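Notebook entry, cofactor series.
This is the third protein in the set we're modelling with a bound small molecule. For this one the ligand is calcium ion. I'm keeping the input format identical across the series so the outputs can be compared line by line later. Sequence and SMILES below, as received.
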Amino acid sequence: MKSTTALATALLATGMVAQAHAATATFITSAPYKQFSDSPFASLAAGNPNFFLENFEDGALNTPGASASGGFAVFGGPSIDSVDGDDGAVDGSGSTGHSWYTGGALTSISFSFSAATLGYLPTHVGIVWTDVGLMPFPPQGVDSVAVRAFDANGASLGGILFDDLGDGQVNGGTAEDRFFGAVFDGGISRITITSLNGSGDWEVDHLQYGLAPVPVPGAAWMLAPALAGLVSLRRKRT
Ligand SMILES: [Ca+2]
Ligand SMILES: [Ca+2]
Ligand SMILES: [Ca+2]
Ligand SMILES: [Ca+2]
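Returned structure with ligand:
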């Protein structure tokens, strides 16, 4: 497929990326995405109590601390395009699962994260683009998509875009489904996903976000035996 081999990814110019290296966000896009194990964040999420996956299979966006600027969950029908595995079978179709739909009207949707609810802003945020239907101009069913991220103050962290995304079909086919993600140590308050060709007829799924587990510093591992030795030394003295 053309969309899986295209190299049309690029940072969107924002001016913010000229800051110090530590203030730079990283953007990722990957395919195929048939189920959560295909996510670049899957290993990060495993056993992580601060990582959440919203697959919309309960018909709602209700994972902690996440909200959308628009759209709604849709379910079941030939034009519905969930992530493939959400219906229990990785079989090339997502038409019997749930997705998040623009309602035929929105060219852009923001997903925001509440530090008050979560206790932090997520360092990792991802979304899976699953389908586009009607376009303002031909060809139908193919779009250019941008995902942008914003920091705790609402300042742009930049973004990533992908051209010629879609299978030209208005059905639940899952071959073209694609992951978009942002990573920023300073915390992400919001992502937006946008149809750059002005379509209001597209779907996303698998909103995923969380905090990277804090690694145990190497110095602490080295210090632990030393402390144990100190304790045993004191015990011998007393
Ligand atoms: Ca839900
Ligand atoms: Ca399926
Ligand atoms: Ca789903
Ligand atoms: Ca699809």
